[in-house]
Amino acid sequence: MDAALAQLSADRGFGSLSLREVAREAGIAPTSFYRHFSELDELGLALVDEGGVALRQLMRQARKRIARNGSAISTSVDTFMEYLANNANLFRLMLRERTGVSKPFRTAIQTEIEHFVTELADDLRRFAEDEGKPLSDARLVAEAMVTLVFNQGAEALDATPKEREILKTKLKAELRMILVGSQTLSHLGLN
Q: At which residues is the DNA-binding region annotated (predicted)?
């Protein structure tokens, strides 16, 4: 899996990898690849799963930091950007294959996104209860937030450190706007 990730870049996607290249990078014979995966796409799906699990684990750790530091949006965005810096090729894989030709890839990535949305919606409901500020629709707010973060993540991949800081500031403001907008709609009874 690491060998495949090492070959991915801004200019090279998963679809251009060959089994021989991955095996050579991993230091194994091409036939040994089949002890681990039945085909290259199975390796890609395992990478998508690993990427999603790793990000969800990081976001769970962020929740613990939020409990100590208080700023949910700021802590979450900072955590996501850390993930992005350390897993750029994995995130690129998810971005490219999200709309790629492979239905199994698209389905796997949509499943990972669905996990993020569900967990975030649950967090938002708890936040709304704790703060006494109901949301018009926690699920819809979570979907908007995840979509925004995913899209800003794509921009941040190749950004300079200064550009990334600007993106983080912008993303935090946009997420706050979504949250406050939902609270306002609920307050006005415009669900």
A: 18-37
Asked if 141 contacts 135 with a C-beta cutoff of 8 angstroms, the reply is: yes
Residue 41: closest CA among 18, 65, 72? 18
* DSSP category for residue 189: T
Looking at residue 191, what is its pLDDT? 63
Nearest to 114 by CA among 150, 84, 161, 82: 150
Q: How far apart are CA 5 and CA 120, in angstroms?
A: 28
- Alpha carbon distance 156, 84 (integer Å): 8
Q: State the Cα–Cα distance between residues 145 and 112, nearest whole angstrom.
A: 15
- Domain locations along the chain: 52-188
Architecture in CATH of 52-188? Orthogonal Bundle (1.10)
Mean residue pLDDT of the chain comes to: 89
b/e for 101-115, b at 16 or more Cβ within 10 A? eeeebeebbeebbee
The SS3 of residue 73 is helix
Look-up of token digits 């997420």:
175
